[in-house]
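Sync notes, pocket subgroup
Present: LS, DG
LS reminded everyone that the earlier model was apo-only. Rerun requested with flavin-adenine dinucleotide included. Inputs:
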Amino acid sequence: MNIAVIGAGPAGLMAAIQAAEGGGRITLFEHNPNIGRKLLVTGSSRCNLSNDAVEAAAFYCEDPAWMETILGVFGVEEFRRALDRLGIPTQKTDDGWYYPRSQSAQAVVEILGEALAERGIQLRVATHVHDIIYGNEAFQLHVTGLGLHQTESCDRLVLGAGGKAYPELGSRGELFGSLEKLGHAVRPLVPALGPIYADLGAFKELKGQRFDVLASIWRGEERLGQTTGNIIINQDGFNGPGVMNLSHLVALNPGAGLTLQVNFIAPFWSDLADILTGQVAHPCSLRAGLLRYFSPKAADFFIRRAKLDPAAKLNTLSEEQIRQLLEVSAEAKFSVTGAGSFRNSQVSVGGVPVGEVDPLSMESRLIPGLYLVGETLDVAGPCGGFNLHFAFGSGYLAGTHLASLQRKLSKERT
Ligand SMILES: Cc1cc2nc3c(=O)[nH]c(=O)nc-3n(C[C@H](O)[C@H](O)[C@H](O)COP(=O)(O)OP(=O)(O)OC[C@H]3O[C@@H](n4cnc5c(N)ncnc54)[C@H](O)[C@@H]3O)c2cc1C
C-alpha cells in the first residue's frame, strides 16, 4: 500500500508513525523546511500535550458523541502510553496539565523526527502540495519541491495540513479548496484562542497587570460562554487563557455588540466573603485585605473605583459598601471591540464538519481512503493541551487504522 501524509504537524506525524507499524510505503509531505514547526512553539516551547480535564464537553465540536467516541479509545492514559512507547514520557502539573518530562518541545520534535527515520518513512520537506485529485480509487497530489512540479500518486491519503492559525508557521488553509472539490463541506474558519479587544476605560491604568478571573461573554442578556483562567490587561484589551477560551465567540459574532464581564475576585471570593461577613475574625484594613490577593496598584484601583476608605476595617464594611466593592471588582463590564486575527490566535475554528469523518478511523465518509486529522476538522479545544491531544489522537487513530488495513491486506496476499 502506498500511503501519503500531508503535513508534518502533530496530527500528520503521529499518523505516519502509526501507519508505519503495518509496513507499506509511506511518504510525508511538508512545505516547511523542517517538521513540527508549530509544535515547537506550543506551551511556551514546553509543549502542553494534554490535560486531566480532557472530555468531550470541553471541546468546541458540533457532535459531542463523535468526540466521546474518539476519547473513549484515545483518552489521556492511552495518549500517555502512546507517547511513552515513542520515548516521550510525560509529567503532570498540580493542576492536571501534561508536559513532556524534558519540558522541551524541541526534544519532542527531535524524537518524532527520529521515529520517522527509524520506520523508513520518506520525508519530503520543502514540498508544497497544491491540489488533490481523486479517481479510480487513488489520489494524485500536485506538488512543488526544489523548484520541480510533480504529480505523486497514492492509494491512501492522510490530510493533516492544519487550519489557518499562525500562518507563518505553515498552516494557511490552502487545501480546503481541494477538499471542497472532492465534495467535503468546509465550515468558514475563524480565529480562536486569541486576545479579546475591548474598551478598557479606566482599567487602562492596570495595563500589564495579571489576574486570575472568571470571564464571560454576553450578547445582550444571553451568556454565550464562560471560563476561568489567568489574564493580562494590555493596551487594547485582554490576553491569556482566561479570555482566549472565549475569543472564538467574538470572532463568530462580528458586530453583535458583545460585552465581556470580568470577575476579578471569583477565585478567592469564598475566602474574602468569610472575612467581609465577619465569620472569620480578621480586623485588617480594606487595603490590607485586598493586598492578600492583588498587587498594591490593583488594590488601590478597586478601592478608589468603589469610593471606599482604604483604612476602613474590612469586617466593618456595610452591605452597601460591599456591594460597591463587588460592582467594580466582580462585575466589571467591557464593550468588546474585536478578537485576535489568525496571526495571533493559537487555533482556528471551522473546517470539515466532524460528521463527514468516521471517529474510529478518521476516514472520510465521502471519499474512501482519505483520512482527515487534526485542525483540518471543525474541532477546537480550550487552552491547556486539548488541541494537541486531539491532533495527536486523531493522527493516532488514522495511522492505527491504516496499519491494521495493511496487515490485513498482506495476510490476504500470503
Ligand atoms: C503559539 C501557539 C501555542 C500553542 N500551544 C499549544 C499548547 O501548549 N497545547 C495545545 O494543545 N495546543 C497548542 N497550540 C495549538 C496546536 O499547536 C495546534 O492545535 C496543533 O499544532 C494542530 O496540529 P495539526 O497537526 O492539525 O496542524 P499543524 O500543527 O498546523 O500542522 C500542519 C502542518 O501541515 C503543513 N502544511 C500545511 N499545508 C500544507 C501543504 N499544502 N503542503 C505541505 N504541507 C502543508 C504545515 O506547514 C504544518 O507543518 C498552540 C498553537 C500556537 C500557534
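DG: The first helix runs from residue 10 to 19.
LS: The pocket of flavin-adenine dinucleotide is lined by residues 6-12, 29-32, 37-39, 41-43, 48, 128-129, 160-162, 165-166, 170-171, 174-175, 346-347, 374-375, 385-388, 391 (CB under 6 Å).
Action: DG to write up.
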